[in-house]
Amino acid sequence: MKTYYTPVNEIDRKWFVADADGKVLGRIATEIAHRLRGKHKPTFCNFQDNGDFVIVVNAEKIHLTGNKWDDKIYHHHTGYPGGIKSQTAREIQTKKPEELIRMAVRGMLPKNKIGRAQLKKLKVYAGKDHPHQAQQPENLEI
To answer: Which residues make beta-bridge pairs with 55?
Structure first.
């Protein structure tokens, strides 16, 4: 069997708008990652970036179930000795509401060049407005 390889000039990328108002973070993040990777297309191959662009609006109105607002802790390291920094989901939501969705989707993408290229096709906005009307995005029902 041969693996089908879509030529780069034949990749059809669409734009989708997902409204995160009242949605659970993990549920919406899995669908966004699915669209960014292109797994919904019959031409999917894991070594090629043929996914779509996804715009997420109303990121500030995302929901977490249970006590995750206070119990879920995100860590990052500054690179210096003893430089581990921790924040709860509520602290991240108040400072940068777009980052919760971006971090959840990033964890679901491959950890290589293709994953980084696919993450660049994700556009997250805290409010309901976005500057991508010229691309004529379709609604993504989640």
So the answer is: 17, 123
